[in-house]
Amino acid sequence: MAQLPPRMRNKYAVLLVFVVALVIIEKENNIISRVSDRLTPKQAPQSPPLSNVSATSPLKHNSSLSSLSELDAAFTHLRRRLENYTERAEPHRDGKKHIVLLATTRTGSSFVGEFFNQQGANMFYLFEPLWHVERRLSQEGGGAGASASASARAYRDVLQQLLLCNFTLLENFIEPRPVEHVTTALFRRESSASLCEDPVCTPLDKNVFERYHCKSRPCGPLNFTLASEACRRKAHRAVKTVRVRQLETLRPLAEDPRLDVKFIQLVRDPRAVLASRMVAFSTKYRNWKQWAADGEVPTDDEEVRRLRGNCENIRTSAEAGLRRPAWLRRRYMLVRYEDIARYPMQKAAEMYRFSGIPFTPQVKEWILRNTQASKEASGVYSTQKNSSEQVEKWRFSIPFNLAQAVQKVCGPTMKLFGYRFVHDKDTLTNKSVSLLEEKVFDFTF
Ligand SMILES: *[C@@H]1O[C@H](CO)[C@@H](O)[C@H](O)[C@H]1NC(C)=O
Ligand SMILES: *[C@@H]1O[C@H](CO)[C@@H](O)[C@H](O)[C@H]1NC(C)=O
Ligand SMILES: *[C@@H]1O[C@H](CO)[C@@H](O)[C@H](O)[C@H]1NC(C)=O
Ligand SMILES: *[C@@H]1O[C@H](CO)[C@@H](O)[C@H](O)[C@H]1NC(C)=O
Ligand SMILES: *[C@@H]1O[C@H](CO)[C@@H](O)[C@H](O)[C@H]1NC(C)=O
Ligand SMILES: *[C@@H]1O[C@H](CO)[C@@H](O)[C@H](O)[C@H]1NC(C)=O
Ligand SMILES: *[C@@H]1O[C@H](CO)[C@@H](O)[C@H](O)[C@H]1NC(C)=O
Prior knowledge:
The chain is of the alpha/beta class. It has a domain at 97-269 and 314-380: Rossmann fold. 47% of the residues lie in helices and 7% in strands. The protein has a 5-stranded parallel beta sheet with strand order 2-5-1-6-7, with helices on both faces. A two-stranded antiparallel ribbon has the order 3-4. The protein is globular. 31% of the residues are buried. One 2-acetamido-2-deoxy-beta-D-glucopyranose binds next to helix 7. It is found in: Golgi apparatus membrane. InterPro entries: Carbohydrate_sulfotransferase (IPR016469), Gal/GlcNAc/GalNAc_ST (IPR051135), P-loop_NTPase (IPR027417), Sulfotransferase_dom (IPR000863).
């Protein structure tokens, strides 16, 4: 060491300080881990970022550190690790939570979205804002549509801005283009309580037609400046979307220090989803009806491939979440619609506990009201139904050969989520046979 030039000696000194700091942090980390282990009994074995510095550090390979460049590399590496650690240890001080409810169509996402929409004065909830993005992108390139990765980026960026209460980017996708940040064209405005209450609800203008106008009370056209201000005042924000294909594409949201994002992925038996889509989007599913009548489903048809693609996306996203990568730590929860339908109150409580948001009496009341049998006539998007009864209805509406086709195409997805296969028509319609395995998806990590 004596022969080292002063510059290098300084480097050694700084390095030493970092190593000491790392050791101290590591000690505290262990204590924290032990405490949190006690708090969450089901916690899986953890690998905190610093638990094994030497294993991945360049220091391991060479104890002599002969060259300055090696020292530099080691130094940079350790500094990054320290930065990484302090960043993660930094709590989100304002306590604001950002929920992203990820689903696909006909999985009960409107119903589950209401769990958050009904939370009360502290929640800013948006219903399917990416509808506009998908619509605009599908018209791009003379109707050819944007590529999957371009769409994914657009969804991600708009979602990120919305969680930050910034509507500017979304406005670019709305048609007709909002004038001075005011629009009459926001898709399903009435499904967001916070867009229909004071002060976002301005006095009604009788000369203006708004297709998705507020139902709870008459309001003027939507002013995004007011919406943005209201959003900023709320403690928590939630967005429901059926348009994000891969959870992985949302990683920048999880890593945005301005956000404290919780992803809730909602899944449902793909056979039930197909049965429900055939009713809701009748004209789009004409081929499936034909195949039901023919008794045979082609294996290489475009629509069959699309079903396979959807199932694979859902499975890949869930596997990414369940693999527990560091960026999703305590940020991912998987829920099956069937469990919500059977135990709505319990599941809602779990979702709130996971989100770190108070489970208010308003939500509880809404759930009690809306999981009772309702004789009211209901539209296709209605959430008022006896959920435990509704959830099994598909077994009587789907032709057996279509159920078989789904099992073939979506097999691995069904296995992952615990949806049992049926091998004959009688089992499909035999209510004493459950098609649902009891499964617990651990999200306490
Ligand atoms: C650190 O990594 C080494 C090599 O991979 C391994 O043998 C050792 O068990 C690890 N130690 C801890 C505490 O994880
Ligand atoms: C360790 O340092 C020696 C020089 O002292 C060098 O020859 C060797 O390649 C280094 N090993 C590694 C793994 O970097
Ligand atoms: C820091 O964290 C990021 C994201 O979690 C990770 O990709 C990166 O490898 C980490 N860097 C180091 C040096 O551990
Ligand atoms: C909102 O986002 C746009 C870009 O999408 C940006 O130019 C603008 O500064 C943002 N507004 C605020 C208040 O952050
Ligand atoms: C929208 O609301 C903002 C904030 O109150 C207001 O300044 C603006 O004039 C409103 N825009 C229109 C077109 O009314
Ligand atoms: C919902 O329907 C199921 C099956 O018909 C029935 O057992 C249950 O009591 C109903 N629940 C309510 C709350 O009405
Ligand atoms: C329905 O399943 C149960 C349990 O497997 C069986 O005992 C019963 O015979 C079945 N009913 C019919 C009508 O197949």
